[in-house]
Design goal:
The complex is a heterotrimer of chains A (about 350), B (about 350) and C (about 575). Chain A is an alpha+beta fold and about 350 residues long. Helices cover about 25% and strands about 35% of the residues of chain A. Chain A has 8 helices and 19 strands. Chain A has a 6-stranded mixed sheet with strand order 6-7-8-3-9-10, sandwiched between helices. In chain A, helix 5 links the parallel strand 7 and strand 8. In chain A, helix 2 crosses helix 3. Chain A is elongated. Chain A starts with a strand and ends with a strand. The model of chain A has no long low-confidence stretch (mean pLDDT about 85). Chain B folds into 2 domains: about 150 residues, D-Maltodextrin-Binding Protein, domain 2, CATH 3.40.190.10; about 160 residues, Periplasmic binding protein-like II (D-Maltodextrin-Binding Protein, domain 2). Chain B is globular. The N and C termini of chain B lie far apart (about 80 Å). The N terminus of chain B is likely disordered. The longest helix of chain C is centred in the last third of the chain and has 33 residues. Chain C is built from 23 helices and 2 strands. Chain C is globular. In chain C, a hairpin with a 2-residue loop joins strand 1 and strand 2. Chain C is mainly alpha-helical and about 575 residues long. The chains are: A alpha+beta (about 350), B alpha/beta (about 350), C mainly alpha (about 575). Chains B and C meet through helix 2, strand 2, helix 3, helix 5 and strand 7 of B and helix 5, helix 11, strand 1, strand 2 and helix 17 of C.
Chain lengths: ~350, ~350, ~575
């Protein structure tokens, strides 16, 4: 089965560990989004998988075999570079044909396959253009077509949309998503943009401090972030700092009083006295008919902003914390609220 | 199968080359005589063939720059001589070469027939082959047009009549530090005015606007008015044979040379070129035959039109063109080669100080 | 076993595989001969007068500085015009500026004489117009002639080396400086110069060393009144046979070269500015404003006058016969003729040394071709060594440059004694001449290839690898293609240097393989209008063949590059 597995990758960079035991896998038919802040070593992982850089320790298993000793050009993986690295001396179709020529593709097939690749990215009209004359989006498409043309066993994309403007990015995201599913090959998509990750990734792997801090289906990761960093990195801001009072039942003391009991989340060991964050989902906050299972918080509306089809309400809770929620109708500024928490709406996150 | 074929091809190719090298080896059994000489050396193909056929040998010529460069080469490589014979050393360098002891003695029998003036200072080491006179050449038409009489002596050149206009004197000379005709003309003035008087003479030439350039090519082709360069000076220090070359190598056939040489007494310097056998030769016998050959009429008669020099052997007959237009001085300036070798540096340095401060 | 692993590892890390071969070449063909000859020189008899070296030294430095400044003054605007503007005849003009390189000095002297000499075209024209009896321009044998000839020869270095780098510089940088309110001059000083400092300095160094070791120009165009160290070495070694004095002068010249190289190394410290490789032709446009048009037109006129007119004058003298009418020296009649060319194919005196023009051309071309391959190969290896191991640059660069500043007379004598009687003696080793030429050509290749190589983004080769190209193939299909332009420029310099060079190699050239310059010398060594005309015809053939070769090489590179 087409499956790439990375086991315990280590790499030093300028005397400090950049990768400190990275492990993850990706299988056919899925796109793994590798997320991490810039400088976290995401690109390095791709380069190591591609074979243009070597790891200090760890293995790269492709279909169960370690390919660490196989040189880049024999791995049969595709990599799309962040700067696209299009060959300036070749035109669009020559760029795309490069990989095919390296595979000694038959001459009579070459044209057809280049055309096919161009068609896939809607660039047939650009076949004989010089790559230096192309716009950023066009270059991106050519780079993608070039990476796909030799039918790689695995495709890696290194922040392919980072250099583009927002509207173009949204448009290309859709195209990419479709393309990646069409090909059916395992894909690793590196990005630091969580929206892109949600849209494109079947699974996510989050890289932090040289390790994968969490990996799993995109939905799962969103539902159960492993820790405060993951939650913050994924753009979740409804966080209340607190301290574990007891583990069983799980009670947490916050600036708004002691709350709980909660259901323990992502496998992690909590102990009394530990600092945690409560990730609060405020969807069912005002359906306050039934008795809240995990206590309630008193808040006061500080901001209410019209967002088109809903309102975003910001509330002050406790001394210095604030939470956000969405409502169908506007709320008056200064209005006191009682937020009733259900256990399933709250995730307890370790640091 | 394919692989085996390739191996076969490789083996046969190897065998073939082996065969070729053996064939080449037998060919090199022909003795080779290497002659080191200067860049101006030239000889007819037929003359070379005559020697090669007569002695079953091959002649190889090694040209090594001008006379000084060639001599340097012979001196510097004397521990591993590159040639068997050295040809082209002239009387201004002769005593230096003898002092460096690069030759082995040889005196051809034909030497006896040569005029006495060529036989002095040979030390039994070298053989004179040819000679040519460095003389002042002039633009005939220029002098006719101006109705100016030709200078007959060195002293005439310093007279106001030959002063020229505005810094452009009538005579161009070569720098004796970088040119052998230049050195020759300096020696003429030293022969005439002595070590004590020659600098004063040059000072008066300088006042008369004499032009100094570094090499013969510039003097002749850039400054001399009768050459194809069409310069400004109607007189140049060149060779007495140059007028013949102007006719033989004219752009259009001429019956009269556009230039002529002043060959009056004590105004020319006679350059004699010698040949010698280099120490360490492995072809001593053949080298001696070649020296003999160079004095024979076949070689001697080839000299004039190849190098525009006169043969030393009076038995050689000269080509008509050459006889008609080439000249030599009856009374060239005389100066002892030993004295030249001893003082040339000093004279050239002193001359430079006066003429090119 | 472990020891071998360690050894191979340290060998790989030092990059010795890259610089080892070129350095070995340098050692065998430069350091050993130089050491040998200096050793021998001081053992010969002769007086050393130290004070005699001071005047040539002073003049050498003075004229080299002045010539280099003048070359920069004209060369930088020319490089700018070539790097930034498209204009009709640009390619032709750029090619023509390369041609002086192939001309032996004696031919250049004749070319200037044909143009500016007492009976040169300019003086003939002015005398006709003004009715003057004496030629109004006195050019030959002056200090001006030296300066002009040095600019004539070396401006191509500035145009090519600096122009090449300039065309790789993103024009938006200059534009944004201009938008921010900088005048063109300020934009040059504050943006372009800091970015191009390296190539400017390194091109200026080449020019300076060429001028510093100038020989033929001083001797033939400057005349007897001027003497550089190289001329003094020539005089002492080959005319006075005073080898110890020549040795001392050579040492002084070499020491000066070392000092100059150290100063250069110190002043050009810092990293290369990474420039994304741009294909030539990018960033160029037609001149728009009146000022731009004026600048381009002015540079074209200057280059045409300086570089092309002397060549035309030379060519014209191979086709025109000048005959003075009897009794009227001031007037000259002229007529067209092909005689000089026809006569080249005739061996009038049946001389053994007669060279058919085709033979001379083939010899010249094969020496130049081999020189080009050798120096492009060695120069590229060195460029890789310097880019991959920047630490090596500190000592490798000056070492490679040293032959440039060494006396060619001394080196020629050195090659002579180092190889006489050995396996590599001149007779059995025909490659000696191109190898000696390569010593001079390698710095050119290095200076054009190295900046381009260090500016190349690594991702290009890596992406080729990921697309399935083996390292060799990625190198050949990506790096070499992107380097083809600088390689071509370096190769062209090697080619032309080899064709025109005759300093060091007259001593080691094989007389049975005479080159075109040798043939030209033979004609010029004898009087007679025919000899003169044939020399001009041969020089014209040299110019034409070189122009054609340069054109072919350029279009070859364009074909590979698919650009411009």
């Amino acid at each position: 089965m087409d499956r790439l597995e990375i086991i315990d990758l280590h790499k030093m960079y300028e005397g400090a560990p950049l990768l400190d035991g990275v492990s993850f896998y990706v299988v056919a038919g899925e796109t793994l989004c590798l997320l991490g802040s810039s400088g976290s070593g995401k690109s390095t992982i791709l380069r190591i998988i591609a074979g243009i850089e070597t790891q200090d320790a760890g293995s790269i298993l492709w279909r169960g075999k370690d390919v660490s000793a196989v040189p880049a050009h024999r791995r049969g993986f595709g990599l799309m570079f962040q700067d696209y690295a299009l060959f300036p001396h070749l035109n669009v179709s020559e760029n795309i044909a490069f990989g095919l020529r390296m595979q000694h593709a038959a001459k009579d097939q070459l044209g057809a396959r280049v055309f096919e690749a161009l068609e896939r990215v809607n660039m047939t009209a650009f076949a004989s253009r010089r790559v230096t004359d192309l716009s950023g989006g066009e270059q991106q498409r050519v780079a993608l077509a070039r990476a796909l043309a030799p039918r790689p066993q695995l495709l890696m994309l290194d922040e392919p949309l980072a250099a583009l403007d927002r509207s173009l990015r949204v448009e290309l995201q859709e195209d990419l998503r479709e393309l990646l599913h069409q090909t059916g090959i395992p894909a690793i998509y590196v990005t630091h943009d969580q929206e892109e990750a949600i849209l494109l990734g079947d699974r996510l792997a989050l890289l932090h401090n040289g390790r994968i801090v969490q990996s799993g289906l995109t939905e799962e990761v969103y539902r159960q972030p492993a820790n405060t960093w993951v939650a913050r990195f994924l753009g979740m801001t409804n966080l209340l700092e607190g301290r574990v009072v007891s583990v069983n039942p799980l009670m947490v003391q916050t600036a708004c009083g002691t709350l709980g009991p909660f259901v323990p989340g992502y496998p992690s060991l909590l102990s009394p006295g530990q600092v945690v964050h409560l990730l609060v989902r405020l969807d069912g906050l005002f359906s306050g008919e039934h008795q809240p299972s995990a206590g309630s918080i008193n808040g006061e509306v500080t901001e209410c902003r019209f967002m088109g089809d809903h309102y975003r309400v910001r509330m002050k809770v406790g001394e210095c914390a604030s939470l956000e929620c969405f409502t169908a109708s506007p709320l008056v500024l200064g209005k006191a609220l009682e937020l009733r928490l259900n256990a399933e709406d709250v995730v307890v996150l370790p640091e | 199968m394919k692989r085996r074929l390739r191996v076969c091809a490789l083996l046969s190719a190897l065998l073939l080359t082996a065969g070729c090298t053996r064939a080449a080896a037998t060919e090199t059994a022909t003795p080779v005589l290497t002659v080191m000489t200067h860049d101006s050396f030239s000889v007819s193909e037929t003359v070379v063939k005559t020697f090669e056929e007569e002695y079953g040998a091959k002649l190889v010529f090694l040209k090594s720059g001008d006379t000084g460069a060639a001599l340097n080469r012979a001196i510097l490589t004397r521990s591993h001589p590159e040639a068997d014979v050295f040809y082209g050393i002239d009387n201004t360098y002769l005593s230096r070469a003898l002092q460096e002891q690069i030759f082995v003695p040889y005196t051809p029998t034909a030497l006896a027939q040569l005029p006495g003036e060529f036989k002095s200072g040979l030390s039994g080491m070298v053989t004179p082959i040819d000679f040519g006179d460095v003389c002042i050449n002039y633009d005939k038409a220029w002098f006719i047009e101006r109705g100016l009489a030709l200078p007959a002596t060195l002293a005439d050149l310093a007279k106001p009549a030959y002063k020229g206009e505005a810094g452009n004197g009538l005579l161009v000379v070569e720098n004796p530090a970088t040119s052998s005709p230049g050195l020759a003309f300096l020696l003429v003035t030293i022969a005439e005015y002595g070590e004590t008087g020659y600098l004063d003479y040059w000072r008066s030439l300088k006042q008369n606007g004499v032009v100094v350039v570094n090499d013969w090519e510039t003097a002749y082709y850039t400054n001399f008015s009768a050459s194809s360069g069409r310069g400004l000076q109607p007189m140049v220090v060149s060779y007495a044979t140059s007028p013949a070359a102007e006719v033989i190598y004219a752009s259009e056939p001429l019956n009269e040379a556009p230039t002529a040489s002043i060959t009056t007494a004590n105004t020319c310097f006679r350059q004699i070129e010698y040949a010698g056998i280099l120490k360490g030769t492995s072809q001593l016998e053949l080298a001696q035959r070649f020296i003999d050959f160079m004095l024979s009429p076949v070689f001697q008669e080839d000299l004039p039109l190849q190098m525009f020099v006169f043969p030393v052997n009076p038995a050689a007959t000269l080509p008509d063109d050459f006889l008609q237009y080439a000249a030599f001085a009856q009374e060239p300036a005389r100066i002892d080669p030993v004295l030249i070798s001893k003082n040339r540096d000093k004279w050239v340095t002193e001359w430079t100080r006066v003429m090119l401060p | 076993m472990r020891f071998w692993q360690e050894l191979t590892r340290s060998v790989k890390q030092s990059g010795v595989l890259l610089w080892g071969a070129p350095l070995a070449l340098l050692a065998v063909f430069f350091f050993i001969p130089m050491a040998a000859i200096l050793n021998v020189m001081f053992a010969q008899s002769g007086d050393i007068v130290f004070s005699d070296s001071l005047r040539p030294l002073g003049f050498t430095v003075f004229q080299a500085l002045l010539s280099t400044l003048l070359t920069l003054l004209l060369g930088l605007p020319a490089a700018y015009v070539f790097a930034r503007f498209d204009f009709t005849g640009k390619r032709g003009l750029r090619m023509l500026t390369m041609l002086p390189f192939v001309l032996p000095t004696v031919v250049t002297a004749v070319a200037f004489n044909a143009l500016l000499g007492p009976r040169g075209w300019v003086n003939l024209l002015m005398m006709k117009l003004t009715g003057a009896q004496a030629p109004p321009i006195n050019f030959l044998n002056t200090f001006t002639a030296i300066l002009v000839a040095h600019v004539f020869y070396n401006i191509a270095i500035i145009i090519r080396v600096v122009g090449n780098a300039w065309s790789q510089l993103d024009p938006r940088l200059e534009n944004s400086a201009r938008v921010l309110g900088a005048s063109p001059w300020r934009a040059f000083i504050e943006v372009v110069y800091p970015l191009l400092r390296r190539p400017i300095l390194s091109a200026a160094l080449l020019v300076f060393l060429f001028d510093f070791t100038s020989f033929g120009v001083i001797l033939m165009l400057g005349g007897a009144g001027f003497s550089t160290l190289e001329v003094a070495i020539y005089t002492q070694a080959l005319h006075n046979l005073n080898l110890p004095m020549a040795g001392l002068l050579s040492l002084i010249q070499l020491a000066c070269t070392v000092i100059i190289l150290l100063l250069y190394g110190w002043s050009s410290q810092g990293n290369d500015v990474p420039l994304f490789p741009r294909l030539s032709g990018e960033g160029t446009r037609k001149p728009r404003s009146a000022v731009e048009k004026g600048t381009v037109a002015l540079m074209v006129i200057i280059l045409f006058t300086l570089q092309v007119l002397p060549l035309f004058a030379l060519v014209s003298r191979s086709l025109v016969r000048l005959e003075g009418e009897r009794g009227q020296r001031g007037k000259v009649q002229s007529g067209l003729t092909m005689d000089y060319y026809r006569e080249l194919f005739v061996n009038r005196q049946q001389s053994v040394f007669y060279v058919p023009p085709s033979r001379a051309v083939i010899n010249s071309m094969s020496y130049a071709g081999i020189t080009m391959l050798l120096s492009v190969g060695a120069g590229t290896l060195l460029a890789y060594a310097m880019v991959k191991r920047p630490a090596t640059r500190r000592w490798l660069d000056p070492l490679v440059m040293l032959p440039f500043g060494a006396s060619s007379v001394t080196l020629g004598l050195g090659l002579l004694i180092a190889f006489s009687g050995s396996m590599l003696s001149r007779a059995s080793f025909p490659w000696l001449v191109p190898l000696a030429h390569s010593l001079i050509a390698i710095p050119f290749v290095l200076r054009t290839v190295q900046p381009a190589l260090s500016a190349m983004p690594k991702s290009l080769c890596q992406s080729a690898a990921v697309l399935g190209a083996s390292p060799a193939r990625a190198w050949w299909e990506v790096e070499m293609r992107l380097l083809s332009r600088p390689l071509l420029v370096g190769g062209l310099f090697a080619f032309t240097i080899s064709i025109g060079e005759f300093g060091a190699t007259t001593f080691i050239a094989r007389p049975d393989n005479p080159t075109v310059p040798v043939a030209i010398f033979r004609y010029l060594a004898q009087p007679g209008g025919l000899n003169y005309g044939q020399a001009m015809a041969m020089a014209t053939i040299l110019i034409v063949i070189c122009a054609v070769s340069i054109g072919l090489l350029e279009s070859l590179s364009r074909a590979i590059n698919g650009s411009e």
